[in-house]
Amino acid sequence: MADQKLTPSAIPATVGIKEAKLMKKRAAVYARVSTGDQHPETQLYDLQTRARQRGFEVIREYTDVISGSKPKRPGLDRLLNDARRGQFDVVLVVALLACAKT
Q1: What Rg do the C-alpha atoms of the chain give, in angstroms?
Q2: Beta-carbon neighbour count of residue 28 at 10 Å?
Q3: CATH 3.40.50.1390 fits domain 24-93
Q4: Which of 23, 44, 57, 64 could form a disulfide with 75 if both were Cys (CB 3.0 to 4.6 A apart)?
Q5: For strand 90-93 and strand 57-65, is the pairing parallel, antiparallel, or unpaired?
Q6: Are 63 and 78 in contact (CB under 8 A)?
Q7: What Å distances lie between residue 64 and 5, 40, 70, CA to CA?
Q8: Residue 52 in this model has a pLDDT that exceeds 70
Q9: Reported pTM
Q10: Collapsed DSSP state (helix, strand, coil) of residue 99
Q11: What ranges do the domains of the chain cover?
């Protein structure tokens, strides 16, 4: 059942709604890079891998090639709009931490 998508007909009648949601969560992944010479594909690959490890079904990928300091990011804006509409259960992102030299 790991590769099977959960549609209403795929969920056995004896499984409750709560258990069905635990079986396969709908996930969105978001990747952002700052410049055109960078590529979000590496982040997307890592996020897809993590989603599979967690048993999530990735339903949509969102990407931006734009500085994180910009107030408008089209991919992030679409992700937030879809989140408000309940299109997915979880969001996966890569967190990059900068360490200052001492």
Answers
A1: 17
A2: 23
A3: yes
A4: 64
A5: unpaired
A6: no
A7: 28, 8, 11
A8: yes
A9: 0.70
A10: coil
A11: 24-93
